[in-house]
Amino acid sequence: xxxxxxxxxxxxxxxxxxxxxxxxxxxxxxxxxxxxxxxxxxxxxxxxxxxxxxxxxxxxxxxxxxxxxxxxxxxxxxxxxxxxxxxxxxxxxxxxxxxxxxxxxxxxxxxxxxxxxxxxxxxxxxxxxxxxxxxxxxxxxxxxxxxxxxxxxxxxxxxxxxxxxxxxxxxxx
Length: 173
Hints:
The structure is a single chain. The protein is α+β, with helices and mostly antiparallel strands and about 170 residues long. The chain has helices at about 15-30, 65-70, and strands at about 50-55, 55-60, 75-80, 85-90, 95, 100-105, 110-115, 125-130, 135-140, 150, 155-160, 160-170. The strands form 4 sheets. It has a 5-stranded antiparallel sheet. Strands 8-11-10 form a 3-stranded antiparallel sheet, with no helix packed on it. The termini are far apart.
């Protein structure tokens, strides 16, 4: 993923808006017991997931977290206990490089882990105890994804400055 930079209308390929959208969605999911509805103010152009120009419309980096949360963020939110390296911030003290949440859809027998790596220096390891869904398997990741489940332990490498979705589904009998 490209290094984030300050947003401007011409900076269509900057990835930081997508990570920020992912972090907002993780926060909304984490507080789903209190937040019952959320809206996005800009649907087209400016800071929107979709921008229009002469010749058509295009997806911005913010489009994908909303798409993923819409498709895979249905069910019971599992508030993960995330331990992560931190970076210093004058306003918020120590900010974790990794933020993550999981959603269990019992009806579809699927689990989705949404994670953001804020780190600029390199990838972060994501590890989790998944014994509670021991009969699940990792849904084949997109090119470049390396998540796997072994002995009830989920392991993945999250690229630097990235939005990530790891999907698990109940294994066929």
